[in-house]
Amino acid sequence: MNNNSRPMKPLFGRLTIAVVFAGCMFPFTSSAQQSEISPYSRHGFGLLGQLHTPAFAGIGGMETTLLNSYQFQPNNPASATYLNQTTFQGSAIGNLLKMKQGDAAASATFGSPGPFGMVIKRKGGLNALIMNLSPYSNSGFVMSRSETYEGIGLANEQYTGEGGLSALNIGWARVFKGTKLVQAGNDSVRIQSNSLHLGLQTHYVFGQISRTSTMDIIDPTFLDHRVRFSAQHRSLSANFGMVYEHLLNARYNQLGDFEQSLSLRIGGVYTPSSKLQSSLVSIDETTQTLGGIPVPLDTAFYSERIDHRAHMPRTISLGTSLHFDRGDGMRVSAGLEYKTSAWDNVAFEFAPEMLSDGVEWKASESMHLGLQFNLGNPEQRNSTWGKAIYRIGLIRQLQPYAVRGHHVQNLSMTGGFTLPLVGSRSLSRLHFGTELGQRSTHEDALEETFVRFHFGVSLMPFFKNNWLIPRLYD
Fold first, then answer.
1. Is residue 445 domain-resident?
2. pLDDT mean values, one per 10 residues, the chain (474 residues)
3. Do 72 and 130 contact (CB within 8 A), yes or no?
4. Number of independent structural domains in the chain
């Protein structure tokens, strides 16, 4: 028989997209998740930083200073000290993805679990214990096309992938507070004037990503071709988080009642570069399709590296925000944040088979804008919506991959709200966040439009069952 097949090295400019499968599986063990079906997720470690908790998804994925008292930010351990008390949080995500390239178009709807975790904190305490499991990256796609080749005729090509990486965090946070006296009529009131929130947590990244490319030649006199690649990754590092909050102004009336205040926060999150251990397997083989099932006939290339060593990049996030509070309960907060990861500094250590031809590693960057507010006078409004917190945001993100010299980037608008669980008689809340964005590399390339819905809950003990409070009686 003749074997005129060729290695599968697809570039987006040649692909006609047909998404035929959407699956998702979030790991609770070392198995990998699948929570993304974008063709752009086929490179390297998959798409990074796509999934957030609902409250932070609504403000553009900010993680440094726009923090709250009812949901912690998994990437920033310092956020745990802002919680009122012990909190459990979990979420789920629904996705609608539309893809277009030239005259070809496809769409898919799929869902996935989001981050979940728990912070143990005494009400009014200064310390917090953190336990959390979150998606770190996600990958999953099914693309197919049919093309006629000179000499061999019609051939069906398919490219599939699945998996992703998760991040496990266990850490500790503490807050240090300062006070001062402010004038209130003929008297003075002692208030909190500044605070320093510090947090440290482990950052264990683990999971598996696999890709398969197949060519099925319709003419049975030719052999088919298949390339399979799988990678298991694990890396242990740490996250350091810091937020400093300073009271710029506070005003009280003649009776000593609070009227308004303005505070400034600055903060950052730092993840140092860490060692990466990978198990990589590549198989290039000829096959014969029998009854729709490819049967291996001969192995043209096989590579197995059980202990490939590299490094994960260092990551830095820096942000600032202003917080205005009024005596009737109204609160408005706005922030700005910048995040970068130096993937280009460690790219030379990664295995070349992690990327396709025409794709290269780049430093990833993102800019985040966020605004959240509540309306005040909650007792004079609807018992539920009057106490809601609303949020909007923007994010521009560059993934660490460039296709034909063009960065993979996405631009998103976000929004959401938080509602109290009034009937629970606790501080528990429901959260909703949404993202509307586009992802592409350059004009005439594959363009994706996605809508993502985040649903979550944060559960806190009923006030008569507050944990970690000493009993006053036996």
1. yes
2. 40 34 32 63 87 91 94 95 94 90 84 90 93 90 83 86 92 95 83 95 94 87 88 95 96 86 97 96 87 80 91 97 92 96 94 87 95 80 78 95 91 94 81 94 88 93 60 51
3. yes
4. 1
Distance CA 335, CA 126 (A): 25
Instruction: Say how far apart CA 201 and CA 13 lie, in whole Å.
Output: 42
Whether the CB-CB separation of 287 and 295 falls below 8 Å is answered with yes
Listed in sequence order, the residues at least 6 apart from 290 whose beta carbon sits closer than 8 Å to its beta carbon are none
Question: Cα separation of 239 and 272, whole Å?
Answer: 8
- Output the domain CATH number for residue 345: 2.40.160
65: alpha, beta or left? (left if phi > 0; alpha if psi -120 to 50)? alpha
DSSP conformation letters of 201-270: EEEEEEEEEEEEEEEEESSTTB-EEEEEEEEEEEEEEEEEEEEEEEEEEEEE-TTS-EEEEEEEEEEEEE
The model's pTM is 0.85
Q: What is d(CA 435, CA 370) in angstroms, rounded to the nearest whole number?
A: 13
Instruction: Determine how many CB atoms are found less than 10 A away from the CB of residue 330.
Output: 15
Return the residue matching tokens 């192995």. 299
| Rounded alpha-carbon distances, angstroms, from residue 231 to 131, 141, 164 | 27, 16, 10
Q: Look up the domain containing 320 and give its range.
A: 12-465
* Structure token digits, residue 61: 């994925």
Give CB contacts under 8 A, 24+ apart, made by 304-307.
Answer: 304/280, 305/278, 305/279, 305/280, 305/281, 305/351, 306/279, 307/277, 307/278, 307/279
DSSP states along 155-194: EEEEEEEEEEEEEEEEEEEEEEEEEEEEEETTEEEEEEEE
Distance of alpha carbon 474 from alpha carbon 465, whole angstroms: 15
Q: Which residues contact 238 (CB under 8 A, 6 or more apart)?
A: 200, 201, 202, 203, 271, 272
474 is a domain residue: no
How many angstroms separate the CA atoms of 18 and 319, rounded? 40
Token pair recorded at residue 21: 């499968």
Q: What is the CA 447 to chain-centroid distance, rounded?
A: 21
In a domain, 6, yes or no: no
CA distance 373 to 58: 12
Please say whether the beta carbons of 282 and 306 come within 8 A.
no
**Residue 178 in domain:** yes
Q: Which residues partner with 269 through β-bridges? A: 241, 317
Contact call for residues 53 and 115 (beta carbons, < 8 A): yes
Instruction: Map residue 344 onto helix, strand or coil.
Output: helix
